[in-house]
UniProtKB/TrEMBL annotation:
<keyword id="KW-0547">Nucleotide-binding</keyword>
<keyword id="KW-0418">Kinase</keyword>
<dbReference type="GO" id="GO:0004674">
    <property type="term" value="F:protein serine/threonine kinase activity"/>
</dbReference>
<dbReference type="InterPro" id="IPR052059">
    <property type="entry name" value="CR_Ser/Thr_kinase"/>
</dbReference>
<protein>
    <recommendedName>
        <fullName>Protein kinase domain-containing protein</fullName>
    </recommendedName>
</protein>
<dbReference type="GO" id="GO:0005524">
    <property type="term" value="F:ATP binding"/>
</dbReference>
<keyword id="KW-0067">ATP-binding</keyword>
<feature type="compositionally biased region" description="Polar residues">
    <location>
        <begin position="375"/>
        <end position="386"/>
    </location>
</feature>
<dbReference type="InterPro" id="IPR008271">
    <property type="entry name" value="Ser/Thr_kinase_AS"/>
</dbReference>
<feature type="compositionally biased region" description="Low complexity">
    <location>
        <begin position="356"/>
        <end position="374"/>
    </location>
</feature>
<dbReference type="InterPro" id="IPR011009">
    <property type="entry name" value="Kinase-like_dom_sf"/>
</dbReference>
<dbReference type="InterPro" id="IPR000719">
    <property type="entry name" value="Prot_kinase_dom"/>
</dbReference>
<keyword id="KW-0808">Transferase</keyword>
<dbReference type="Pfam" id="PF00069">
    <property type="entry name" value="Pkinase"/>
</dbReference>
<dbReference type="InterPro" id="IPR017441">
    <property type="entry name" value="Protein_kinase_ATP_BS"/>
</dbReference>
<feature type="region of interest" description="Disordered">
    <location>
        <begin position="339"/>
        <end position="392"/>
    </location>
</feature>
<feature type="compositionally biased region" description="Basic and acidic residues">
    <location>
        <begin position="339"/>
        <end position="350"/>
    </location>
</feature>
Length: 392
């Protein structure tokens, strides 16, 4: 209650401090509006020492707000695709989302061309930098912690898919978008950003290098977006968490480079347990670990229809829903995509079913079959060959 009234007071204060927005702020509630000056001070003039990351959408700085709270300040690099009012409406929707496994958006800055998002700062960085970060972190991820990570991420995603109205398809579930608080509780970041950023940047084509291994084939090739594309990425991610390795590692022997291929082969040979991270020193629950890997395979099946809903995944992970009775079909594989397009010239022609306006439907609901065709990633397949080892 105290906290709510604080937020409300603060946002009303903010609005009264920004008469230049005029009617743009009418109807916008509970969004903190930060001035550019305030964020410059918080980040020490966006100093390189405070820079904590650089992603496809811009740079992220650590900062301390006036009330002493630490924040992650994300400076969007592209000019906004929309006016202040539309931008703030989206921000309001995102700021209203509260869940233990989702990063909290505090507010934003919309001065002139600046579009900056201010998030809760997470102490323990991302799964990409820690668990998958090649020894750059001293955090030990016990089996118990990994279980907590998988279930927490699944709950956060189920919330976005099934509780939030309108539903949100994340579109970029990957290890660097899973942030960790001081207790290693996972928090999904970057949800709801699709409408804030120009369509040309929201698609994978510009950001494919580190993300391709998470992309559902139907989305990568045809731009068909449903919640099931998130299921695919989630499936890859839990296999990474159990195995402690990135989805793609070109330094491994060819047959082991792609984690899904490897998982499928081991599944067929009934040797899934060989995939479990050796860093655990054998300290894990074998039945549970193999179940989690199977769930990863269930989520990454080539046909989106065969992938379960996120709430069912939560039940499977928690052991409340049987997994052994499910017939698992082969995953959609990245190497198959490469075979498909090897040597192909980028095709820049618009497709017949290409969405006419820029893609703006991260929050579409999808019944089992409803899909959104985005501006299909026609040029991206050539970029496949820039793939590194799945890390960024
Ligand atoms: N709220 C946050 N708290 C702590 N670190 C963050 C936060 N948000 C982002 N970061 C760091 O900044 C990096 C870049 O973030 P981002 O711009 O979202 O790009 P990406 O998700 O592609 O890595 C992240 O990988 C993470 O290390
Ligand atoms: Mg991110």
């Amino acid at each position: 209650m105290t906290c709510l009234s604080f937020l409300r007071r603060r946002s009303l204060d903010s609005i009264s401090r920004h008469p230049e927005f005029g009617d743009d702020l009418a109807g916008i509630r509970n969004v903190n509006i930060y001035t550019y000056k305030e964020l410059r001070i918080a980040t020490n003039d966006f100093s390189p020492e405070n820079k904590i990351g650089e992603g496809g959408f811009g740079s992220v700085y650590k900062g301390q707000l006036r009330d002493g709270q630490m924040a992650a300040v994300k400076v969007l690099s592209a000019e906004s695709r929309q006016g202040v009012k539309e931008f703030l409406t989206e921000i309001q929707m995102i700021s209203e989302i509260n869940h233990e496994n989702l990063v909290k958006l505090y507010g934003c800055c919309v001065e002139g061309k600046h579009r900056i998002l201010v998030y809760n700062y997470l102490e323990n960085n991302s799964l990409a930098r820690t668990l998958l970060g090649r020894g750059h972190s001293d955090i030990y991820f016990s089996w118990r912690t990994r279980v907590k990570l998988c279930i927490g991420i699944a709950r956060g995603l189920a919330y976005l898919h099934e509780e939030v109205r309108p539903h949100i398809i994340h579109r970029d579930i990957k290890a660097s978008n899973i942030l960790l608080d001081k207790d290693l509780t996972p928090k999904i970041s970057d949800f709801g950003l699709a409408k804030l950023i120009p369509a040309s940047m929201t698609h994978v084509s510009t950001r494919v290098a580190g993300t391709l291994g998470y992309l559902a084939p139907e989305y990568a090739v045809r731009g068909q977006l449903t919640r099931k594309a998130d299921l695919y990425s989630f499936g890859v991610l839990i296999i990474e968490i159990v195995s402690g390795r990135c989805n793609t590692n070109t330094r491994l022997p060819p047959e082991e480079q792609y984690i899904l291929e490897r998982t499928w082969k081991l599944y067929e040979r009934r040797e899934l347990v060989l995939l479990v991270d050796t860093a655990l020193g054998g300290e894990f629950d074998v039945e549970q670990a193999c179940r989690f890997l199977k769930i990863g395979l269930i989520c990454t099946q080539d046909s989106p229809k065969l992938r379960p809903s996120m709430s069912n995944v939560v039940r499977m992970l928690a052991g409340e829903k049987d997994v052994d009775g499910i017939t698992i079909t082969k995953p959609g594989l990245i190497s198959d995509l490469m075979d498909l397009k090897v040597g192909g010239e980028p095709d820049s022609k618009p497709r017949p079913n290409q969405a006419s306006s820029s893609y703006n439907s991260s929050s579409l609901g999808d019944s089992e079959n409803t899909t959104t065709t985005t501006s299909a990633p026609s040029t991206q397949i050539n970029t496949v060959f820039t793939i590194s080892d799945g890390r960024n």
